[in-house]
Amino acid sequence: MSQESTNQKPTDEVDVVLIGAGIMSATLGAMLRELEPSWSQMIFERLDEAAQESSSPWNNAGTGHSALCELNYTPEKNGRIDLSKAVGINEKFQISRQFWSHQLDNGVLDDPREFINPVDHLSFAQGDDQVAYLRRRYEALKDHPLFNEFEFVDDKEGFAKKLPVMSEGRDFEAEKVAYSGTPQGTDVNFGALTKQFLTAAKAAGTEVRYGHEVKNLTREGSHWKITAKNVHTGDTTVTKAKFVFVGAGGYALDLLRKAKVPEVNGYAGFPVSGLWLRSTNQELIDNHSAKVYGKAKVGAPPMSVPHLDTRVIDGKKGLMFGPYGGWSPKFLKKGTNLDLFKSIRPDNIPSYLGVAVQEFSLTKYLVSEVAKDFEDRLEDLKAYVPSARPEDWETVIAGQRVQVIKPAAAPRFGSLEFGTALVNDIDGSIAGLLGASPGASIAPAAMLELIERCFGERMIDWGPKLYEMIPSYNKKLADNEDIFKEMWDYTQKTLKLER
């Protein structure tokens, strides 16, 4: 008899298993507890704490992604600013605001200032071409109901008043600059939000097993058998569940493969790591109050758009710049160097090869980024903070992301996807989330989609409760300005975002 068999514990049975103690599992768990309070839930987390990977506040920028300042969400096509992606993402973030507000009203969440704070969202343009584009973008957005209180500033005095840290030492005569944006943005600590959700989950009876890594998923009739290993003792446990959500970040794809979910055949993952520069100078931190997004470099992935960010973590204001692209074969920050190589299978080799050929500019960009030292990174920062000094900044390792490579028909073979993708089995008994930004910001909208896909037969019964959780459910706020205003005022007050 094997050692693993000897140390195996009795089988547990629950209704729902959530893999990964990050914001996605925490959100889905909260929704299902309200929709079906009688269902038992269990969470497996390979680390010893919640929200230590992508949900950790220093592993992401904390931008409440509502497309207010992210220029890659408003591309220009044939001389026209395309707002479709920006509007879609903004709509989804309004769902987040409503869901969090409802959870606060119900006592599931307690202190909104622990996880969300008002911070200006601004876009930054350098040079005549960028400034002209930014003005066109502003003109396209300023009268849209979802993008309120927008402004455009391209004069030295206005720029310096709003962004003193970005103005000091800047030669305004040598290069034209401008900003556009709104004070209606937010900074979100997804780690704190996750922990509030999980505190409520445990109080409601959810068992959270930290230090337990799920090693295998197999179907047994109408149930899933989840085999997990205690990373400290080596003991294995077997749990049976009717429904499984794989919210394991970069490891989600591998676990869905182990579960033999046919919908992921041909899928692959491309790991992208990154670094931030974090300010250690309190004067700089105090004098900058905005999230300022610029244009991505040629060949850079959208998640590598440079931005100078005000953060509010554990009640303390911070400032960081980045991210700087990097590369690691790990699929999680605390993964292994074998992750990428173990993910290569016969069915996804064409996807990898197709992306290798098509995304040469991305490869070139990552190679150049990896080769940078601290002084090189400081030079990039000086485009935003001209007076930046090395003694005022330190390097921080960002979270690890895995970009989804979807299988595609010949001659492309595979396409690199920048976004968040939901995958589920045909019978809706297992689902997982793949990809990256806007990710955490739209977790409630993503989990709503999961619920609709996997529990479709229950949607009529659950309808009243869903409308209670998200009052604008099934409505397009962009087409219902009165409802948007009502929801905006409600969430502003409940989330304590009024300045």
From TrEMBL:
InterPro entries, per the entry: FAD/NAD-bd_sf (IPR036188), MQO (IPR006231)
EC number, as in UniProt: 1.1.5.4
Keywords, alphabetical: FAD, Flavoprotein, Oxidoreductase, Tricarboxylic acid cycle
Example of a GO MF term: (S)-2-hydroxyglutarate dehydrogenase activity
Gene3D superfamilies xref list: D-Amino Acid Oxidase, subunit A, domain 2, FAD/NAD(P)-binding domain
Catalytic activity: (S)-malate + a quinone = a quinol + oxaloacetate
UniProt enzyme class: oxidoreductase
Cofactors, names only: FAD
This protein's pathway: Carbohydrate metabolism; tricarboxylic acid cycle; oxaloacetate from (S)-malate (quinone route): step 1/1
One BP term from GO: tricarboxylic acid cycle
NCBIfam families linked: mal_quin_oxido, PRK05257.2-1, PRK05257.3-2, PRK13339.1
Family in the record: Belongs to the MQO family.
Protein name in the entry: Probable malate:quinone oxidoreductase
Organism encoding this protein: Corynebacterium yudongzhengii
Gene name per UniProt: mqo
